[in-house]
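Lab notebook, bench 4. Still working through the backlog of constructs that have no structural model yet. Next entry is a single chain of 485 residues. Request: give me the structure tokens for it.
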Amino acid sequence: MKIKEDGIAPNAGRLLWAGFVAILAAGVGFGIRGGILANWGAEFGFNASQLGVINGAGFTGFCFGIIIGGVIVDRIGYGKLVAAAFAFHVLSAVVTLAATSGQSHDLAYQLLYWGTFIFAVANGTLEAVANPLVATLFPKNRTHYLNILHASWPAGMALGGLIGWTLGESWHWKAQLALFLVPTAIYGLMFLGQNMPRSEASQKGLSFGEMFKDVGILGSIVVCFVLWLFFKDSLGVPTLVSALLAGGLLLVVSFITNFSIGAWLVFVLFLTHALVGAVELGTDGWIQNITGNILTPAEGKILIVFTSLIMFSLRFSAGFIEKNIGLSPIGILLACSVIACVGLNFVSMVTTFVGAMGALAVYAVGKTFFWPTMLAVIGDRFPKTGAVAMSIMGGIGMMSAGLIGSPGLGYAKDRFAGQVLEAKNPEAAAEYQSAEPSKFLIFDEVYGLDGKKLGEVQESLADARKKMAEAGNPDPQAALQELTP
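Model written out:
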């Protein structure tokens, strides 16, 4: 890397690595949270759908942070947004850690939901700074440096997974989660007192209408759809009122852009980013929990660390791929789509740890370049849109993950686990059934498994697996068969 030569500011390197550590903090928190979902279910009695909604708040809050931050960053500057993000990170820790055993089910749920939501607002606010800042600092090599910036996300997930792997059995979930405050303090110090360049849109003095012109009506339709889902499903606003709010926002954007239809490529990128968010991040949020049930909890944590390290390593090579292999950013996205599709299909057939490593390795390679490369395409092809389109696209991806990907997987887990148990053992299904139904979009209500009761079973299964491993049989399925009546 030639940061000094490529950057347009003398402190370009420090700002790049400050942004790196900021997104690292987000990844650490995300990785730890993925490993303690089962703890929350066992301690507070949540079913999988409720855990999915809490986990989803870690994405939906991001949308508000990045979109609002992206709209105002050119007006108030990067520094004030970094300070706001730092405050939100600290506040999120206070709210989340206030959830305690013995509290009512509803109070614990609200504390964990809103603590996770505020954490996501902080993450989104930081990305509203980091993405346009790096794009401005390195205008001639955006794809390379945005991939380096976003290498911090899988690095943070790997660290979060390692924390769960090494400390999960000996440290309470609160102590584990609080560790994300360490990189939070570091990025705060790294940004402190730094001069930051103005974005391209800010330098040109563009109005809101001019910055939104490439987004236009088409791009706003995608934004308004995910906001309609948020108002309706997360805030409980009536469907008609949610539609009126979303429609009102669409009219506002249409008015300030003089009813510009927008760029078709921006619309396509927004739409595909919604799919990327649901499939990539929604899966990431559940992967430890799901593979930990198929295999063992420790193996589930090893797998998230393994895949995160693959992504971390590959994101440093985006510039090499673009220059030496000859793939354009669009070509990189096409290749990644094919590889990720193959990988996900392999993952669905996993039954062993070795098989899981192979399948998830293919999937990790495929999803590595999606997020940062799509941001680079927006920055390269639509410079007038500046921070706005980057922020909106990131917000759409996270909102989709929070409203569709994570809750959808939680609902699917409740639905299919309940169906299989009902078919095989109706008495056990009735005994372990959750008291509250699981809901998702337009699908029928279903009853999943009670988190506390499931946690007790998982503890017994973990003890049985440990004893069988000590006896020379490490197969995780053997212990399950031994305990099955």
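Notes after review: The mean pLDDT is 81. Residues 386-424 form the longest helix (39 residues). Flag for follow-up if needed.
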